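Complex record, two chains
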Amino acid sequence: MSYLLHILILANIYSVAAVSLNLIAGFGGMLSVAHAAFYGIGAYVIAILALNFGFPFSLTMICAVGLAAIVGMLVGVPGLRTHGDYFAIATFGLQVIIHSVMTNWVGLTGGLLGLPGIPRPTVLGVTIDSHVRFLFLTLIAAVAVFAFSYRLVRSPFGRMLRAVREDEILARALGKNVVKCKLVVFACGAGLAAIGGALYAYHITFIDPSSFTVQQSIFMLAIVIIGGTGNLWGSVLGAAVLIGIPEILRFLGIPSAIKANIQQILYGALLVAFMMFRPQGMIGEPVLMPLKKDGSATRVQESAQEL
Amino acid sequence: MTSQLIANGLISGSHYALLGLGFAVIYASCRILHFAHGSVVTAAAYIAYLFFIVLHVPLPLAIVVSILVAAGMGSAVELGIYRPLRRRGAGGLVMLIASMGVFIVIQNAISLAFGDGTKSLRGGQVAEGVLFLGARITPVQIVAMATGAVLFIAVSLILSKTKFGKAIRAVAADPELAVARGIDTDRVILVAFALGSALAAVAAVLMAADLDMTPAMGMSALLMAVVSAIIGGAGSIPGAALGGLLLGMAQSAGAWYIHTEWQNAMAFGILLVFLLVRPQGLFGKPVRAVEL
């Protein structure tokens, strides 16, 4: 039972990560491979503050979100100068650099040994010390992050974001502030990812750099892409499916020694298959405002293909 | 000490140059960020290990097999995945994501087959270095530098003298115009994948002989290939080799001041500076921001 709760908690945490990445990659059209780094910043900030200074839950969360949002904006800067492939490479670089700080700044992060013994959080006077309570906490966080993101993409800002994705020069010509738009979405995406990372650290009570690698970033991207870019429900569904797959493997009786590899191979194969046969993901982006009666149906599919 | 640093820079530089060269040949032909290139590197190293150490095949033959398998893998990815995607009009990022998928599959398949531990091509011996102008260099490292230089010249000659070279440069410069002039772009791209992957295999064997191998080596090989290609100037194939050499020298010089654990971070620091300040690289044509 506690194992099932653990899986549900992980699904909630990953849906936070995927929804926040969808803002950047799906709605913003900027394929970022640095999301695990923001997620990791959240985890490290709460671990360091809670372990060394005994900061309470609310304060660590604010610091985690704040720092990740600032770093997110810094990552957004190359996003202003580069597009497409080059942007992906730039985020790849930042991911490697941030991971290398986690590994090598031993005095702050504990290096490869990581930071053990993260204390259980107390939220509004309730100590979150059981799996059931943790499930509620992560569920509330996941719903809050989803609601915030949903509001964001439905707002005029969300429309501007999609406009920048579809045609940056046109958006600029219409007087939209493209720079601000990209930096804001990066700050939001990174800040929300930090919530996921912070919850992960509180849940596992131990963190080390191996949870925040490039592979982890690609896994988050896989959730967003397989779920459906530009559709927040897709990210939730994607998280549930991709977190659920390993459990099916366990059910099939695959030995745990090779389970991790089989699981990764499955994710990789799914990514390739979706790109070949359904690039818009399980749930594609909804058509918000059909432009013309004849051409509207294909527009979304086209943009998914262009991604 | 200085000559040792220069030697170290030249050695890792020649590894990076070969990685960058292979990556750039592929990138120039089809503009795909071939992420799976990293896993071809890993696969080539392990094939050499399988034949040389496990099956006791003579080393030269094992290397030839490794190169052929790598070329076959690269071509298979192009034929099985990129070409069908191109037919459907998929954009660069769709290709990139599919490529990441291929990368994950191959790397984990290798880790399943051979385990995660370090494997060595040396059969337990530790090579003794020879003293050369005050720097200690092992025979494997001398072979690496010589091979790097020879292959760089060979690839440059292929590009400038042969029909394939002209075709790939035409496709790199303007794919549509190349088609209009009757160049079979599909064939050019396929040959580029075979050639680029073969170069990756050579780099893989040289690196594995010098530094041993783990299934994770492909990721860092990919990083260095990408950084070399971008420093050199994407689209400029010889530039990628020079970029790799520069990257090796810069890392070696940096080892004076910065601990070696930071080498990956440093390579990417250099990359970010280039992306922000000179995105066309050292030898590339200036590009407009819109095209990046």
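Note: Residues 8 and 110 of chain B are 29 Å apart (CA to CA).
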